[in-house]
Amino acid sequence: MNLLPAVRSFLSSPKQLLIDGEWVDAKDGRTFATVNPSTEEDLVQVAYASSVDVDRAVVAARAAFESGSPWSRMTPRDRSHLLWRIGDLIEAHADELAQLEALDNGKRVEAARDGDIATAAELFRYFAGWATKMEGTTIPMSVPGREFHAYTRREPIGVVAGIVPWNFPLLMACFKIIPAITAGNTVILKPAEQTPLTALRLGELLLEAGVPAGVVNVLPGFGDTGAALVAHHGVDKVAFTGSTEVGKKIAAAAAGNLKKVSLELGGKAPNIIFADADIDAAIAGAVLGGYFNEGQCCVNGSRLYVQRGVFDRVVEGVAAAAAAITVGDGFDPAAQMGPLVSQEQHEKVLGYIRGAVRDGAVLTAGSADRVGDRGYFVQPTLITGVDERMAVQTDEIFGPVVTAIPFDTEDEVVAAANNTVYGLAAGVWSTDIGTAHRVGARLRAGTVWLNTWHADDVTLPRGGFKQSGWGRELGSFGLDDYTELKTVIAELR
Fold first, then answer.
1. 58 and 184 assigned to the same domain
2. Where does this protein have coiled-coil stretches (predicted)?
3. Residue 462 lies in a domain
4. 80 inside domain
5. How confident is the model at residue 90 (pLDDT cuts 50, 70, 90)?
């Protein structure tokens, strides 16, 4: 493995917490090991933040936010320039960040660099433009005999706790940090315990760019660290991406001081292929939509519905493509798919596959066995003979597992597609533009792709219907959940 000198240097010493612009040990001295999922070897020890450390970070973030602080005195233009500098630094360190992501998460180095890291840099630059464009409105009032001037202001909320998952570690951290600081908030970031490294390296780059002390704090830890953040009365907002189960717990815990909450939660996206679709394009889209990022993506099309007349052809095409995917270490140039992120996730995904076989389903591609002697690898799997009651069909698996079910009519497939607690994404393939738009409009999901999958841009809002979450991220809409709307009324005499 040809690691960059900067990566070797970063991994040469235990990682600390970032609190108030300083790198510090956890108050109780606890640490944990972060593991390379390709080799199952420890990478480095990382400080484990306790509730005491959470208190320290909240105090620092509150002080940085309060009126009169260097952060509060920064103009929107100053914040814009700062965000742009951070984007430049991320781009300059893209190869280093990509290697750290591949080591910690398992994804391919190229995928991390050209996807996650490049998008992170672009996000900082995109939101740099919004820092100077958060405007209010003037509103005419109708009060007989009196004259008023009424207007609105967009103001930051305060201290934001960002809690992010392990599937896109750096990118999800940026999803929380960027809109928060664009609006003038301060942040306490809690990265996933499986993948803390790029968040910590990002913390170093933020300080290098000139982010004032206390504005962004990074607290690695486990569920108890996140729970302490969510329950803390000094936190004004929680922004969370992760499972629906944890999202429900966060919503309940936030009731203590009625802090604001935005949630991007689980998904079980239906991918619908009609008989009149461009079948070759639909097969390629189903493979990308199903197996992207090792299947560890909440908007993946894990439920494939194919009109009966082309069902066998589509299944044959997807199965062949899945079987041709080379699974291996993220540093192996020949690998097309890396490992799952952890032993826990590996066992969970294989458990779902084995359960489907026990229930009578058929593995048209893939296997219920682990790949190789070490590493958390799973073959891309396609399962047929599935009914709507099977766990493999109803549950978010978060691995390279796709189920395929035939359908006959539009009404039938729309009912099946919407028969889920989730509503994050969906897709439709049809050369009839009327069919595509009509069915897309009937699907209950926050993002609907027509004749494509995973087409995306930093300008587009994302979020879910039903139990897939609250609020939207990215685009201009992504700032709404990080600001308070104030109304000001002045009587003119």
1. yes
2. none
3. no
4. yes
5. very high
Residue 404, by phi and psi: left (phi above 0), alpha (psi -120 to 50) or beta?
beta
Whether 448 and 425 have beta carbons less than 8 Å apart is answered as yes
Which residues does the annotation mark as catalytic?
264
Q: How far is CA 153 from the centre of its chain?
A: 29
332 in the same domain as 251? no
Domain count across the chain: 2
Q: Is the domain of 390 the same as that of 474?
A: no
CA 286 to chain centre: 21
- Same domain, residue pair 161 and 239: yes
- From CA 116, how far away is CA 166, in angstroms rounded? 12
User: Is 252 in the same domain as 275?
Assistant: no
Query: Is the predicted pLDDT of residue 237 greater than 80, yes or no?
Result: yes
Let me know whether 393 and 484 are in one domain.
Answer: no
Same domain for 332 and 256, yes or no, is no
Q: Which two tokens stand for residue 329?
A: 């270490």
pLDDT of residue 209: 98
Res. 453: pLDDT tops 80: yes
> Given a cut of 90, is residue 371 above it in pLDDT?
no
Please state the rounded mean pLDDT for residues 60-83.
96
Are β-strands 303-307 and 270-273 bridged in parallel, bridged antiparallel, or unpaired? parallel
- Whichever domain contains 339, its CATH number is 3.40.309.10
Secondary structure (3-state) at 462:
strand
Tell me, what's the pLDDT at 369? Answer: 87
Q: Indicate whether 1 pLDDT > 80.
A: no
| Whole-Å CA distances, 472 to 12, 87, 181, 297, 463 | 39, 22, 17, 17, 5
pLDDT average, residue stretch 290-318: 98
Cα 296 to Cα 157, 350, 351, 365, distances in angstroms: 32, 14, 16, 18
Q: Name the percent of the chain lying above pLDDT 90.
A: 97
* Domain that includes residue 173, residue range: 5-265+468-488
Flag whether 463 is in a domain. no
Please check the confidence at residue 314 and state whether its pLDDT lies above 90: yes
Residues 261 and 274 in one domain: no
Q: What is the pTM of this model?
A: 0.95
Average pLDDT over residues 79-103: 98
Which tokens belong to 71?
């952060």
